[in-house]
Amino acid sequence: MATTTADRNGDGAEKKRKLGGFKTMPFILGNDICDRFATAGFGANLITYLTQQLHLPLVEASNTLTNFSGTSSLTPILGALVADSFAGRFWTIIAGSVFYQLGMIGLVVSALLPSLRPPPCSPPGSPACRRATGRQLAVLYLSLLCTSLGSGGLRPCVVAFGTDQFDHELEQAQKQKQGAAEAVEAVAGRKRRYFNLYFFTMGIAALLAVTVVVYIQDNVGWGWGFGIPAAAMFVSIVVFVIGYPLYVRLKPGGSPFTRLAQVAAAAFKKRNVALPEDPGKLYQDKELDALISTNGRLLHSDNLTFLDRAAIVMPGDISGSGQPDLWRLSTVHRVEELKSIVRLLPIWSAGIMLATAESHNGSFTILQARSMDRHITSHFEIPPASMSIFGTTAMLVALALYDRAFVPLARRVTGLPSGITYFQRMGIGLAISIVSVGTAALVETKRRGTAVEHGLADDPTAAVPISVFWLVPQFAIHGIAGAFSSVGHMEFLYDQAPESMRSTAAALFWLASSLGHYMGTLLVTAVQHATRGRGDWLQDNINRGRIDNYYWLVTCLMVLNLGYYIICFHFYTMKPLEVADDEHGDHDKECELSSVQKNGTGAGGVSRMV
User: Fold this and answer.
1) Closest by CA position to 107, among listed 155, 62, 45
2) Which of 36, 317, 501, 595 has the smallest number of CB atoms closer than 10 Å to its CB?
3) Which residue, 178, 253, 244, 293, is CA-closest to 19?
4) CA separation for the pair 73, 238 (Å, rounded)
């Protein structure tokens, strides 16, 4: 894939200003900080807006929130398709930002105009409160839809666009006769730091949002509370555009989904054709794959061999001009692209349950905090939605210490340059998440017991005499889990996905979050129906409900999910990749690369083909 500003093939490239690298990070991450600030600014407290301002019942508001979060994490698949097929990541980010800005403006208007909200009532949630009308909800949902479409352009492309700024360094190192192993390890190290930095900046933005914006929403007004994130979104667009001359902007390699469909169709058409004993007889075409394999072609692997039939040359597969019919014949590289996606799906799916467990943090946990003693001083109460500050702070501290403390210690034990593999990092995060949800169940048992003990079981608006800081451990543990699982998950998807599908890989990360939130909605609905008339675990009066039992159910599901992940890891096969080995002055020699070996060299490891 060539760049629009950097000529990768021309001799004049060396005369041009060096593009990419860490100097582009202030613009890319500056855009991301403002985007995350805007997202967290209205998302962190949205449950309060739905229940206190629009007077929606608890379960309906919770499902609205999880459905919105799920949709926002589903649209990145569309954004990735647009970016990888024809628009490129830069312009997809711009388009996503504009849609997001329109959605934020709609939310500001909805909060400012009294005609777009039901009349206020006291106390909120009482039978006298009139819920929002269909027209009022339509304006809200249309605004949320615009922000979801905006997320579709931003989420899959920002992280991949950032790594694009380092991919060209591998090519430069090879041109300078640097060995493949050293070049790959150097670039892998920079990408590893970038992933940590990416999630760190996300945390900083969320920290600012849940402190400043949530306080304004609760104490000043929702117009300002939505207006500030909207202004931040506008700033993010300006900052990102300013960095335009410095970016490496890769040309899209065509629709990856079309290529995957072509491989599947060709393999099905040749389902009765015998496979050759020598994989070297399968179809190869370096020129055809040049645009989608600038970092090296994928090598043949011995699993999912049914798909290899797509690369068997049959009469009529190649025209007289030498061009293959791609719906009848695919190269080995394209076959391996589909294999890579199929292989990573089981491990990817383990992240779905993680998002399901996380989905209650924006709904039930906030309602728990609202019912507790939130006084820091006699005159200041911490806003319920700001409790997530402790999870965000824990994640930031964990990310800051990861490279500086954890990796050096782990490296002494494992000998891996990265300390641990991203498989281990994700597994550790999944295990810590189990502890987080279990802790939430114990704290809710304590909170509910205190409410019953003081005769407040039938008074959902009363402040239960138990400090809100009992919720801090579950938030902190959850934040630490995210520093391991989320970063490991993203790094795994980016590394093991085909080169031409990096935006799609990032979209898969958000798709797991989407499916997790939808699963959270299904789980809440199923629990509500199953317990109705038999304890009512989830009801508007949480002092009478049994949210703790719901948390224990999620904990059990998380334990099963960890076991599933371990089994998937055991059977996983790494993506094989070849690059020219200039270390020996022979451009035709190739070596097999895996940025992370399952049980061996760690990030940046190289095993040579002999």
Assistant:
1) 45
2) 317
3) 244
4) 24
The 10s digit of each residue's pLDDT in 132-190 is 888 888 998 899 889 889 888 888 888 888 878 876 655 555 555 555 556 566 666 77
292 Cβ contact partners less than 8 Å away, ≥ 6 residues apart: 1, 253, 254, 259, 333, 334, 337, 498, 499, 500
DSSP labels, 347-386: HHHHHHHHHHHHGGGGTHHHHHHHTEE-BSSSS-B--GGG
Tokens at 237, concatenated: 């667009």
Residues with Cβ within 8 Å of 65's Cβ and at least 6 positions away in sequence, in order, are 46, 47, 50, 362, 363
Residues 507 and 155 sit within 8 Å (Cβ to Cβ): yes
| Residues 3, 479: Cα–Cα separation, whole Å | 37
Residue 593 · residue 296 · CB < 8 Å: yes
Token couple for 11: 């001799």
Tokens representing 110?
């909805």
Virtual torsion, Cα 135, 137, 138, 140, nearest 10 deg: 130
Note the pLDDT tens digit of each residue in 54-92. Answer: 888 877 887 787 778 777 777 888 888 888 888 888 999
